[in-house]
Amino acid sequence: MSTQKDFTTSYSPTWCPGCGNFGIFPATKMAMVELGLEPHQVVMVFDIGCSSNGANFFRVYSFHGIHGRALPVAEGIKLANPELTVLADAGDGGGFGEGISHFIHTARTNIDITYLVHDNHLYSLTTGQTSPTSGRGLKTKTAPAGVIDRPFNPLASALINGATFVAQGFSSDIPHLAELIKKAIQHRGFAFINILQLCVTFNKFNDQNWYKSRIYKLEDINHDSSDYNRAIAVAIREDNKLPLGVLYQVEKPTLLDELNLADKRPSIKQPLTEVDISKSLEKYT
Amino acid sequence: MLVNNFSWKIGGEAGYGIKSIGALLAKSMMRLGLFVFTYDEYPSLIRGGHNAFEVAVSSEPVHAPKRPINILVALDQTSLDQHLCELADDAAIIYNAKTVKVPSAFIPKKAKLFPLPLQEIVSKLGGEKIMNNTVAWGATMALLDVDLDFVKTMIESSFETKDPKIILQNIKVASEGFEYLRRSFSIKDFGYKVEKKENPGRMLMTGNEAIVWGAIRAGCQMYAGYPMTPSTSILHTMVINADEYGIICRQTEDEISAVNMAIGAGYAGLRSMTATSGGGFALMAESLGLAAILEVPLVIVEAMRPGPSTGLPTWSGQGDLRFVLGASQDEFPRFVLAPGDVEQCLNFLPLAFNLAEKYQTPVVVITDKYLAESYKSIDKASIKTIKIERGEVLGEDELAKIKEYKRYAFTESGVSPRSLPGTKGGLHLVNSDEHDEFGFSDENSETRVRMMDKRFRKIESAKQDLPLPILEGGSHADITLVGWGSTRGVILETLKSLENHGIRANFLQIVCLSPFPREAVINVLKKSKKIAIVENNKTGQLAGWLKENTGLDPNYKVLKYDGRPFFIEELTETIKEFL
After folding, report:
1. Which among A79, A275, A277 has the least Cβ separation from residue B248?
2. Can you list the alpha helix ranges (DSSP code H) found in B463-550?
3. Chain B partners of A11 at a C-beta cutoff of 8 Å?
4. What is the ipTM of this complex?
5. A61 interface with B at CB cutoff 8 Å
6. Closest A-chain CA to B217
7. How far is Cα B75 from Cα B73, in angstroms, rounded to an integer?
8. Inter-residue contact B272 to B301 (CB < 8 Å)
9. pLDDT in tens, B494-504
């Protein structure tokens, strides 16, 4: 049985004191421990940004990629080796900015991976520029007079594009978040968690009090996560409230189920020798 | 009477089966034991515009289209008007009697005219207008004195469709085209015919098909791609064969996704590749550098055509050499291979995979539209046996013996053994941040320098495995033609043609562009009396690269950048002027 320590490298976290990542980090490890996973069974694919510096801190098979492209890498890994538990981990900048098309299209595949997005409404590693989820009016380095564009809605986007597990967590509620991550990993299919996260250094507006006055738990209102229409309603509500918990979960065939490769699935274990193509070449004669 | 040596061309609107009937003619000639090479031109349209497809037929191996055209099939007026100037003096013109007017003042004096009531034949037999091409093909076979039975067999055995109704219909219209020509015209004084020779089981294949079969026989297990002409038929061919060979084939949302998916699968342990054209390769550029710093194997095929998403999307060119050599941020080792014909496509893909895995380095295989889509008849014996080399990958047992596994261990060869995710004892971080031997982010100046040097040592280590330039035509010559990629075919033909003019030329084909085979190239070129670089681009990209690497300046640069390949006759004339 592994412990959180087994999932922790010797590399000291470089996040600012009070950073929301200090909540998401243990919650993620807690989920993996509780699921009985061993570090070598897990691959985490990281985007870039503050959250993705976590690549150095998680003791798993870690992949630190480029901006916005964590999902296709994670899909490639899962397709190559379905035995692995694969998580993609990004921020709202990479995940919903440069990587937005991958988010939409990976949801459509229902590949069995978990996607965690650390959503602090800002680009923080680059010192505080506007992100796709920055609220209207938020004053940022690149919008000194306040953000004009309407914020991107990650939950609704995941829902309407076919994600089969859609949830929202909060970096300050570690046990609740750990439970969500556990459920997401257990879910067979594309599981997305939007994690509301504090950035104490650059986002003084969306602070602990701001979140505390808006969040509520879906379990407290007896939300039925099998009801797609309810989930949509919760995701698009405009009452300034922020739901926490599983908005929607449904079992559907995964990409690997539907590729239907059966015994012909390529395996990383199969020793490769020259493949005999002579039969196929007949049609060229 | 010229036997078994001629060029045939068909022209018509897009959507009228120009390419399929051209390929059928090429296959027919190949089955009759002859060698063929095809070249087609078409605009980026689904209907309308002008499509043309030509087939060079010979009793000897043929590597390029040959002009003049001996038989022209004009399904519409444009086809006649545009290609009149390409005709041999004694050419035959088979044309749609109803829609094509032959301006007697402009046609070659000895030309033979064969007006055919294409549409009437098709209608009478209850066929569709699209079958006009099949009638014309049948007539061509009659003109070349081929058996009618063979005409029927060809349709039965080569049509993609298995619908017996469509096959029967096509046999009917082809046979009537054949018989109509026989009934209505004498072919006695037409100067070209076909005589069946022994067919040792040759194959007719395009460069793209050869890329796919080269990849499949090398054990490719994962393919991710996004459509872009002229790379698209790689995706088409891969996807229809994926199930049989246990390959995961995905069309992704864009090229960035495709290359990252291939990187992910390659990292996890599958032989993976992607293919695109220049515009798509531009999107992949950052990820190319990612694969390099992660030291994850990656094979990318870049099939060139001029311009961005638009440009000259269905034409050919070699304008991306410098782009491929320099693409992406920072500096890193890369292997760039340029096959020059269908056979080399079949044989270079296995090498590309071996290099990618053995040296954990990205490999770009660079081709172009002309190579990608031209058919060539090849001998099966030209497919060389391969050895699959996957580089050092540590298993659980080996890892158990290591105290501390370092994914990026500083080694003499520059190659650090991999461990695949899922393997106990091999945990590590593959990191796009500059990193230490474990993979942890490290911006220390010493680490950076040592890690860069380690990665670059792989170039020296790989030298033994890299293909040397190929010298054709002997070591003594009046002039050495230097080229890369698809110009191989036309240059080989030009050597023969120059010899007929009493000029001895040889040809140096540089097949590995990066790292540049400096010594081997210098050894050949220092003996050359004159050097002419032949390239399908405006600025002489290979010429510049050659100079940068060897200090050598070619005496001549022969450059063509109109979207068309070189033709034997024009290249021969150009070279002749240099001597």
Report:
1. A79
2. 487-500, 518-525, 541-550
3. 440-441
4. 0.98
5. yes
6. A275
7. 6
8. no
9. 999 999 999 99
